[in-house]
C-alpha cells in the first residue's frame, strides 16, 4: 500500500467509505479499520476536526446537567410541599371554625331551651357555654390573623364581599331575639304584678273581718290594705300595657311620651310613666262621690245612710268578678265608670296601634263591655280603684288624698320612691313626677304617695 501511488479517486473513495460507515448526525463512531485507514490519509485532520465539533457530550458534562435538573426538581417539589402544607393548615383552620360555629349554635339552642320553662341554673350554665364558644372563635380569629401576617395563609381576595355583609343577617336575628327577650321580660314582670294582686285579694277574701272594726265597720287599716291592692292592680295593668306595646312593635318611648307628656329615656322609666298614667286616669275625680259621673249629692243629704250604703256595696262587690257583674248589669254605676275611664285611658290612635283596631271602643260606646283578655285586665284594675273609692266614702271622716308636685322635696313620711331604696339624707333628690297619690286618714295614718325621684335640676 505504501508503494502504491495515491490518486484523487482513491481519496474520494476513502472519504465516501468513511462517511457511509458512521452514524449521523454527531453521535457516530468510526470503525477501527477505517480509523486505521485514515491514519495515513491527508484528510484525516479535517475529518478529526469535524468529529470534534459533532462529538457527544462528555460524562462530566452529563453529570453536571443531571445535578442541575435534580436541584430544579427538588426546588419545585419543595415549593409544592410548602403550598400543600399551607393549604392543609388553611383547611384545618376552616374545619375548626365550622366546628366552633356549630358549638355556638348548640350552646345558644341550649340557652333558648332554658327560657321555657324558666330555669336559672340552666340559664347560667348555657350562658357560660355560649361565652366559652365565643372566646374559642376569638382565638381562631387571632390565629388566622397571625398566620395571614406570616404568609402561611393567603390573604383574602379584596374583591370578595366583606365579612360585615355576611354577619349582618345574624346580627339582625340577634337584635330580634333581644327584642323578644325584652318582651318576655315585660310579660314576666306583668305576671309577677298579677300574682301580687291576686295574693292580696286572696288574703283579703280569706280574712275579711280582720281589718274591720267592731260590728264590721270600715277602718283605716282596711282602707290601707285596699289602697295597696289598688296600686298592685294598676302596676299589673301598666306592665301588661307595656308588654302589648312591645309585642305590637310600637316605639315605647314615643307612645309613653304621647300619653304621659313625660320624657322617657329607659324601659324602666317607661314602666313607671305608664303606671302614673293609668293611676291618674282611674283616680281622676276620686274626691267626688260618683267620680263626677252624675250630679248626685247623696252624701250631703243623709251622710250616715250614704256611708252605710257605700260600705254595703263594698262588701257585696268584694267577691264578684267584674266581668260577671257587667255581663248582668252593663250600665250600672261601675259599668259607667269603667266605660268612661277606658275612653280616657287609651286614645283611639294608641288603641289601634296596640290592639290592631278600635273594636274595644266601639263595643264600649255601644253600652256593653268586651269579653277580651285585655279588657279583663283593665276591669281588674278598675274594680280595685272603684272598691277603694267606695271604702273612702264609707269612712268618717273620708280620707283626703294628696299628690307630690314636680320638683318638690322628698319627704319620707309622705312619699316613697318607686326605685325601692330611699335616697340618702342630703342627696339632693327631688320629685321628677308623681306615680300614685297618697292618702291621709282621719286617725292620722298616711298612705304615702309613690314618686319617681331625679337629681335636683335633672329631668326624668
Main sheet: strands, sense, barrel: 3 strands, antiparallel
Secondary-structure element pattern, one letter each: HHHHHHHHHHHHHHHHEEEEEE
Q: Which percent range fits the helix content?
A: 55-70%
**Mean pLDDT metric:** 77
Roughly what fraction of the amino acids lie in strands? 5-15%
User: Tally the helices: what do you get?
Assistant: 16
The order of strands across the largest sheet is 1-4-5
Spatial extent as radius of gyration: 49 Å
Region (Disordered): 35-67, 196-221
Domain GIL1/IRKI C-terminal: 402-452
InterPro entries: DUF641_pln, GIL1-like, GIL1_IRKI_C
Organism: Panicum virgatum (Blackwell switchgrass)
Please describe the topology of this protein.
Layout: H1 8-20, H2 32-38, H3 44-54, H4 59-113, H5 120-150, H6 163-206, H7 220-247, H8 252-260, H9 267-283, H10 298-301, H11 303-318, H12 322-328, H13 333-345, H14 348-355, H15 359-365, H16 373-392, E1 400-402, E2 415-417, E3 429-436, E4 438-440, E5 446-447, E6 449-455
Parallel strand pairs: 2-6
Antiparallel strand pairs: 1-4, 3-6, 4-5
Amino acid at each position: 500500500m505504501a508503494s502504491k501511488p495515491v490518486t484523487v479517486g482513491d481519496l474520494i473513495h476513502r472519504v465516501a467509505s468513511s462517511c457511509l460507515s458512521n452514524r449521523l448526525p454527531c453521535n457516530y463512531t468510526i470503525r477501527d479499520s477505517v480509523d486505521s485507514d485514515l491514519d495515513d490519509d491527508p484528510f484525516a485532520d479535517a475529518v478529526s476536526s469535524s468529529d470534534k465539533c459533532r462529538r457527544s457530550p462528555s460524562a462530566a458534562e452529563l453529570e453536571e446537567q443531571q445535578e442541575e435538573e435534580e436541584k430544579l426538581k427538588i426546588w419545585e417539589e419543595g415549593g409544592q410541599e410548602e403550598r400543600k402544607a399551607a393549604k392543609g393548615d388553611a383547611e384545618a383552620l376552616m374545619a375548626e371554625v365550622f366546628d366552633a360555629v356549630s358549638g355556638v349554635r348548640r350552646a345558644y339552642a341550649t340557652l333558648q331551651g332554658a327560657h321555657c320553662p324558666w330555669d336559672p341554673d340552666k340559664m347560667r350554665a348555657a350562658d357560660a357555654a355560649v361565652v366559652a364558644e365565643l372566646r374559642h372563635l376569638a382565638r381562631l380569629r387571632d390565629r388566622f390573623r397571625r398566620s395571614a401576617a406570616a404568609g402561611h395563609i393567603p390573604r383574602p381576595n379584596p374583591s370578595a364581599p366583606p365579612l360585615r355583609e355576611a354577619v349582618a343577617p345574624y346580627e339582625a336575628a340577634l337584635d330580634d331575639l333581644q327584642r323578644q327577650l325584652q318582651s318576655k321580660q315585660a310579660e314576666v314582670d306583668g305576671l309577677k304584678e298579677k300574682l301580687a294582686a291576686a295574693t292580696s285579694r286572696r288574703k283579703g277574701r280569706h280574712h275579711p273581718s280582720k281589718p274591720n272594726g267592731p260590728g264590721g265597720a270600715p277602718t283605716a287599716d282596711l282602707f290601707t290594705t285596699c289602697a295597696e291592692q289598688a296600686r298592685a292592680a294598676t302596676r299589673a295593668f301598666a306592665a301588661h300595657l307595656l308588654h302589648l306595646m312591645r309585642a305590637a312593635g310600637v316605639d315605647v318611648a314615643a307612645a309613653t311620651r304621647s300619653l304621659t307628656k313625660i320624657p322617657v329615656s329607659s324601659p324602666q322609666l317607661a314602666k313607671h310613666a305608664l303606671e302614673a298614667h293609668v293611676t291618674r286616669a282611674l283616680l281622676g275625680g276620686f274626691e267626688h262621690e260618683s267620680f263626677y259621673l252624675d250630679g248626685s249629692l247623696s252624701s250631703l243629704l243623709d251622710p250616715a245612710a250614704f256611708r252605710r250604703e257605700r260600705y254595703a256595696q263594698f262588701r257585696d262587690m268584694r267577691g264578684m268578678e267584674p266581668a260577671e257583674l257587667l255581663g248582668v248589669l252593663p250600665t250600672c254605676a261601675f259599668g259607667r265608670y269603667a266605660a268612661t275611664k277606658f275612653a280616657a285611658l287609651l286614645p283611639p290612635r294608641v288603641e289601634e296601634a296596640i290592639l290592631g283596631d278600635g273594636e274595644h271602643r266601639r263595643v264600649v260606646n255601644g253600652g256593653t263591655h268586651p269579653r277580651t283578655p285585655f279588657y279583663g285586665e283593665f276591669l281588674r284594675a278598675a274594680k280595685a280603684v272603684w272598691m277603694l273609692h267606695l271604702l273612702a266614702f264609707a269612712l268618717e271622716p273620708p280620707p283626703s288624698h294628696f299628690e307630690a308636685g314636680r320638683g318638690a322635696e322628698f319627704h319620707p313620711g309622705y312619699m316613697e320612691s318607686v326605685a325601692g331604696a330611699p335616697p340618702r339624707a342630703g342627696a339632693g333628690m327631688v320629685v321628677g313626677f308623681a306615680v300614685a297619690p297618697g292618702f291621709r286618714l282621719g286617725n292620722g295614718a298616711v298612705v304615702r304617695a309613690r314618686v319617681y325621684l331625679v337629681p335636683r335640676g335633672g329631668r326624668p
